């Protein structure tokens, strides 16, 4: 059986699940709300010195031995924190309570993942959680990929010098993109250009920040990697468009089309993904106006629908076929 660990709001998981059923496969899906959802009873642990897992989901029960492959998608919900701050008016106590419950839930999840450590994975949590931008950039260079000039600093003068050296620069998160939802708006963190006037507004020292050389782009390229194959899409964002194509301007639709990376670049990507221990992931690249192809980053659990649908790659079906083939 295939075990899918995901989030209830992940549309890509829904599509792959539908294909597994259509192709005759068998799966059980556990969303990240499992560990604090009173409607989903579960137990796992050690009985007589033997690891054992029992789960009942929507009336269906299974054991650890039933699972052959695990698809680790997006098992990182923090919805359980909602409302906890309101349990007490003491802000310090509320903060400690939230921190404690957060650690308890995360540890329970890690224990469950530990019990699945001998299974086949697409991809294992240790691999997906070990992807750090600065380390990936170093590996990318070692595997023959070109990257933009990069700086991490907490010093305004150093950032100003970096801007002078590269003429134009961007800022992006050191870790993952963050977002925040409220009743009135949604806040998203995008890659954006940083000008001299932006740097002048900063204090002399600030939190460590990642800056990169801004590449004058001809094309943006999103590549979905699956088991040694690269499925790439060209994004014709054009000059003057937003720095991050995810920051959509509905009045200026972006054209997307299938794209084939040069074979040496695909070979470098395969070596990089092998070193990272990843069988799947979404990679961002950029073709400069000078014809140079730059590697930017890889997201082990990146969305693939936005690459699949415009290019008719049917990636959800291919992932389902991969999981079914390894369900033995």
TrEMBL record:
Coiled-coil positions: none
Tree of life domain: Bacteria
Protein name (Swiss-Prot/TrEMBL): ATP-GRASP peptide maturase of grasp-with-spasm system
Domain MvdD-like pre-ATP grasp: 1-126
InterPro entries: GRASP_w_spasm, MvdD-like_ATPgrasp
SUPFAM superfamilies named among the record's database cross-references: Glutathione synthetase ATP-binding domain-like
Pfam entry (one): ATPgraspMvdD
């Amino acid at each position: 059986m295939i075990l899918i660990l995901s989030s209830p709001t992940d549309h890509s998981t829904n599509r792959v699940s539908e294909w597994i059923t259509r192709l005759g496969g068998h799966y059980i899906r556990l969303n990240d709300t499992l560990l604090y959802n009173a409607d989903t009873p579960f137990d796992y642990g050690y009985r007589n010195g033997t690891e054992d897992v029992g789960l009942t989901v929507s009336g269906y029960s299974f054991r650890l031995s039933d699972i052959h492959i695990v698809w680790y998608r997006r098992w990182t919900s923090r919805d359980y924190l909602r409302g906890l701050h309101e349990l007490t008016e003491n802000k310090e106590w509320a903060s400690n309570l939230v921190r404690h419950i957060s650690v308890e839930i995360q540890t329970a999840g890690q224990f469950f993942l530990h019990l699945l450590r001998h299974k086949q994975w697409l991809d294992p949590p240790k691999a997906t959680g070990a992807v750090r931008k600065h380390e990936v950039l170093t590996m990318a260079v070692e595997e023959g990929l070109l990257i933009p000039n990069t700086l991490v600093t907490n010093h305004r003068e150093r950032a100003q010098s970096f801007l002078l050296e590269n003429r134009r620069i961007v800022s992006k998160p050191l870790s993952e993109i963050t977002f925040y939802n409220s009743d009135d708006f949604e806040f998203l963190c995008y890659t954006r250009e940083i000008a001299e006037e932006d740097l002048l507004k900063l204090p002399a020292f600030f939190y460590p920040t990642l800056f990169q050389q801004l590449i004058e782009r001809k094309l943006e390229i999103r590549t979905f990697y699956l088991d040694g194959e690269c499925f790439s899409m060209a994004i014709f964002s054009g000059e003057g468009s937003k720095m991050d194509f995810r920051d959509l301007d509905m009045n200026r639709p972006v054209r997307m089309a299938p794209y084939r990376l040069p074979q040496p670049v695909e070979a470098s990507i395969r070596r990089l993904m092998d070193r990272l221990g990843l069988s799947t992931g979404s990679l961002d690249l950029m073709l400069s106006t000078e014809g140079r192809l730059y590697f930017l980053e890889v997201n082990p659990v990146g969305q693939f629908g936005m690459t699949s649908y415009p290019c008719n790659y049917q990636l959800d079906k291919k992932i389902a076929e991969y999981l079914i083939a390894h369900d033995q």
